[in-house]
Specification:
Blueprint: H1 11-24, H2 26-50, H3 60-66, H4 75-91, H5 96-100, H6 104-109, H7 114-148, H8 154-184, H9 188-217, H10 225-239, H11 243-255, H12 281-312
Helix pairs in contact: 1-7, 2-3, 2-4, 2-7, 4-7, 4-8, 4-9, 7-8, 7-12, 8-9, 8-11, 8-12, 9-10, 11-12
Amino acid sequence: MKREGSPWTGLWAVVLKELADHLSSVRMQLLELLIFLTAFAATFVASRQLRATVAEDPYIYLKLFTTGQDPLPSFVAFLGFFLPLAAISLGFDSVNGEHNRRTLSRVLSQPIYRDALLLGKFLAGILTLGISLLALWLLVTGMGLLVLGVAPSGEEVGRGLLFLLSTLAYAGIWLALALVFSVVFRQPATSALAAMAVWLFFAVFWDIVVQVAAQALRPAYGGDPFAALAQVRLGLFLSRLSPNTLFAELVIALLNPEVRALGPVFITQLEGAVLNSPLPVGQSLLLAWPQFTGLLAGVLLLFAGGYVLFQRQEVRA
């Protein structure tokens, strides 16, 4: 039977409905409260620690994101840990929850197609994460104004906004992964555990796997510098298959203007460069552009995989 109308009919109805559900759900409110409290504590400690260096450091606001003090890690470290959990909690029951409530066939019987339903759920999750991240970014900036007593420069604001977009792309990876598992598995608990298992694998075990694989595939014997360099390059390539590594390198490039390379540095790369001089924001963006596009590519590939699986899935009343 041929479909009539646009495949995106009803898209914004799905987005608004899912967005309202996410923002009003108890689990999301509890997770957001936990993120806000930990981010507030980390930022407050960092701002108190940086007060003495306000006059000396032209990028003092960027240090608010990356400075930590024992026992509290930095604001960026908190985001790297909690964001995947928030994204997974938004997407693990997106489709299988509709199956279990027997509402999927009712929704699709309306002038809402599968295309609009899946994309609407994904966009609602991205908007929810974006609203939360924007509020966190404004919280950090406001605390910096109160404690440090100086306003951020235009370049610091630009780097902060780029960091915000990069963080949203990183969260989109885990949201899309949870969405895929919600299509594959019919039980929400199974999809949540599968997504958590993937996150833990990349967060804990991937570096170990990379080291073992690099040493096995590119052994360096007898102190050969070329073999050692080949091993380092292979390890760097394998580590960048992890979204955690891509996000970490994005943070380093965007929030530390003095960084000039994200890999092995050769003498020829430093010709004409003034050491310890900050890069303009445009150059830092060019440096981190491959990592940013890698995250976006991961989001698109995961969503495309979930889209194909969902289109082939049988829907019963």
